[in-house]
Amino acid sequence: MNAKGSDASQNLLLTTSGEKLKSSSTSHTSLKNRNHRYRKAQIETASPVQLVLLLYESAIRFCDQALEAMAQKNLSEQNTNLLKAEEIIGELIGALNQDAGGELAVNLRRIYLYMLEKLVLANLYDESEGVQQVRDMLRSLHDSWAEAAQRLLEQTTLEAGENLPETARLGDRHV
User: Fold this and answer.
1) How many domains is the chain built from?
2) Residue 2 domain-assigned?
3) If exposure means fewest CB atoms within 10 Å of the residue's CB, which of 99, 110, 128, 158 is most exposed?
């Protein structure tokens, strides 16, 4: 193992005799870097539908963190997390294709704008109900997108299977 890998391993492992980590701040940074690299790879290899699902998941997470901050009366964290959720919803609005999406895109845009308004007002007046409502709406949309993606995958798989020769559909079993 190279020196760099060895240092990273040492930072993540507890030593014997109750000693502390070699460097807790280095350990935390190393973990954050690995999470960042994982997330980056996940995003770079995701399909458009998977990207939408990831955006929903992130917005939900930021709403949850904002609700925690609200409960703790931590206005700075509340603001930071609500702004992040708002930014993601702005990305969702920007990703809508009004021409190809037709009425669905128009309706989604209206929903997203409503969510933005609720988050801004919730942040302004410290009202957790608005954040909870947006979080619930995001979860519902996430679940709908995930279900649609699953159905599309199943349909595509069935269609691909129908186009295979009979021996391939049976698993290419040879006697």
Assistant:
1) 1
2) no
3) 99
* Residue-wise pLDDT tens digits, 97-124: 989 999 999 999 999 999 999 999 999 9
| The two structure tokens encoding residue 57 | 């998941």
Range of 112's domain? 33-156
Residue 10 tokens, joined? 């040492």
Which pLDDT tens digit goes with each residue over 64-107? 999 999 999 999 999 999 999 999 999 999 999 989 999 999 99
- State if pTM tops 0.90: no
Q: 18-37 pLDDT, tens per residue? A: 333 344 455 667 777 877 77
CATH number at residue 37: 1.20.120.340
CA distance linking residue 160 with residue 175, whole number of Å: 25
* CA geometry: angle 70, 75, 77, nearest 5 deg: 85
